[in-house]
Design brief:
By secondary structure, this protein is mainly α. It has four helices and two strands. The protein has one domain.
């Protein structure tokens, strides 16, 4: 089966796992997706900004 598109849509959970450094080997896929022009919805952005475990470093990324 061929992919429908070359871009990815990321949800809040995968981005939080990334900020917590919990993705392990899957980190390479996230990096590839972010570099290729992925999508992050407005709702995901709101949820991520409201996440209670932010640090100064995570807010700047």
């Amino acid at each position: 089966m061929e992919p429908i598109a070359d871009r990815w849509v990321f949800d809040t959970n995968i981005l939080i796992y990334h900020l917590n450094d919990c993705l392990g080997d899957a980190e390479q896929y996230l990096e590839t997706g972010l570099e290729s022009g992925s999508y992050i919805s407005v709702l995901t952005r709101i949820e991520l900004l409201g996440w209670f475990q932010h640090t100064v470093e995570s807010l700047s990324s």
